[in-house]
Amino acid sequence: MRVSIVGAGYVGITTGVALAYVGHEVTCLDSDERKVALLRRGVFPIYEPHLEALAALAHSRLRYTSDPNEAMSNAEVIFIAVGTPSQADGNPDLSFLRSAAMSVGDHLGDGYTVVVNKSTVPIGCGNWVESLVREAFEARNGQRPKGLFSVASNPEFLREGSALHDSLYPDRIVIGADDARALERLYALYKPVIEQTFPAPIFLPRPESLGAVPLITTDLASAELTKYASNAFLSLKISFINEIAQLAEKVGADITQIGKAIGMDARIGTRFLQAGIGWGGSCFGKDTSALIATASEYGLTMPIVSAAREVNYRQRERVIDKLLAELKILKGRAVGLLGLAFKPHTDDLRDAPALDIARRLIDRGAKVRAHDPVALDRARQDYSGLPICYTESLETLAAEADALVLVTDWPEYRNLPWSALAKLMRTPLVVDGRNFLERDVLERAGFRYLGMGR
Ligand SMILES: NC(=O)c1ccc[n+]([C@@H]2O[C@H](COP(=O)([O-])OP(=O)(O)OC[C@H]3O[C@@H](n4cnc5c(N)ncnc54)[C@H](O)[C@@H]3O)[C@@H](O)[C@H]2O)c1
Hints:
The chain has 454 residues and is α/β, with parallel strands linked by helices. The chain has three domains: 2-218, 3-Layer(aba) Sandwich (Rossmann fold); 228-307, N-(1-d-carboxylethyl)-l-norvaline Dehydrogenase, domain 2 (Orthogonal Bundle), CATH 1.10.1040.10; 315-450, Rossmann fold (3-Layer(aba) Sandwich). The protein has 17 helices and 14 strands. It has helices spanning 10-21, 33-40, 51-57, 68-72, 95-107, 125-141, 163-168, 180-194, 220-251, 255-263, 284-297, 303-327, 353-363, 376-382, 394-398, 418-424, 439-444, and strands at residues 2-6, 25-29, 62-65, 77-80, 113-117, 149-153, 173-176, 215-218, 334-338, 367-371, 388-390, 403-406, 429-432, 448-450. Strands 3-2-1-4-5-6 form a six-stranded parallel beta sheet, with helices on both faces. A six-stranded parallel beta sheet has the order 11-10-9-12-13-14. A two-stranded parallel ribbon has the order 7-8. It starts with a strand and ends with a strand.
């Protein structure tokens, strides 16, 4: 099937590569010409494990362009995967979605096309996109696009860091559409994924337990709300364990044992019950605030979701509290951050706790250094205004430092040369913001170890 993807960001590129791998002809369109030029040279502007390898296997079916006509006039399915970042009032900025939808209307071809909203958008955006496409088509062609296109919603659940795995082996696929023809076409598009008929790439083996992937079809509004509800639920699960972690710390309990024990109840489940400095990234913060903003349009409040946000952002300050309690004074202290990306296996720095913690430390007069296995280039490019010493060297990070803070649980941080690092530091103190390091190992290496809720 001929597929066009508008917006070649984290979602657009990974979706495009996965769909090309399972057999579709995919054109990724982006308005950022610099990004398209890189992609055409085989350079990916984002870090995502296995992206180069999977793209190489799908190479002959993948194209990149910044020309909407080239991308869309012949497409059978057009995905919109542009950003919907938060605005100050909590509502998402829909300007990229608006211009993408108008561009689709401007470049619709002669054949029936399904326009699919993959961007996370507030409830009702399916109808809005439909009207924008229709109006742009009419303005250009002087006639109504009768039966020429349908709009569907296909919320994306991939996780950065395992985006290709999640695209090839999703837990479920949700498609919202009010039109049987659109559903039929999207079923055909996803058939290889639903039935798992494609050969598994050697570097991304198919999970043994995976059978057919469930397809859930809904109306447009239900699909749109499903995405927000899903992210809100995951967010509050993390905030719940972080709230209990605060009490655990006071009473001398260990939150890692508690999380494990309550998670073994199958009704609860172990995932997203790891206490730490909380969530970050491009989705949870933005989507929970959009959910609250949407609810308020209908005269509703979302106290549970609001509390999850409050607890989450308080966690970042708790790192500062711990450092203050140990070091007493932060002015002039040197603090090294282990990790900048909001989670391991990505270079995404949107709403990254590390940057927030760095700002809070800088505001209190501390000197901040930061290390990350993949996100340093992006940090230097996007956050050059922050007075942070970005370094590839762990020795530079630790030299004469008063504390290290583990912010991102990159696997390589588990086995650092701790004894050597401790010797370089002024005060061998580590705050393990993810409860990821082994306390015994750190203490044997000479560190004072502080976790979160233990
Ligand atoms: N990143 C994730 O993990 C994730 C997961 C699920 C859902 N989502 C949702 O998917 C959407 C995209 O997220 P992302 O992280 O990929 O964003 P992103 O910022 O990485 O990528 C968006 C891309 O769209 C391009 N763009 C903007 N307007 C355009 C236009 N009119 N025409 C062509 N290209 C245009 C931008 O240049 C950019 O490259 C968001 O709504 C997000 O909430 C993201």
